[in-house]
Amino acid sequence: MSCFLAISEVFQVVCAVCDTKQPIGKQQFHCDDCGICRVGGQENYFHCEKCGSCYSVTLRDNHLCVENSMDMCITGSVIAIM
């Protein structure tokens, strides 16, 4: 089920979860665990619970797993990379 709602037939979609507008056609998906929208098709990514980030399925058993790698060491906030 897609979290994106088309608001224009040609130009953009809005994520129903985080309310961000994005261009159509980039296979957007919202990762509930990351709390952000990502592109590239949800079937091509998995969320690593230990790292706290999404990675390509080709890295499922082969990525450098660093616990909470998306947390900033100074502020303690989560890095939002799109």
TrEMBL record:
A GO cellular component annotation in the UniProt record: nucleus
N-terminal signal peptide: 1-16
One annotated GO biological process: protein ubiquitination
Organism: Arachis hypogaea (Peanut)
Protein name: CTCHY-type domain-containing protein
Protein keywords: Metal-binding, Signal, Zinc, Zinc-finger
Residues of the CTCHY-type domain: 7-73
InterPro entries, alphabetized: Znf_CTCHY (IPR017921), Znf_CTCHY_sf (IPR037275)
GO molecular function terms listed in the Swiss-Prot or TrEMBL record: ubiquitin protein ligase activity; zinc ion binding
Origin superkingdom: Eukaryota
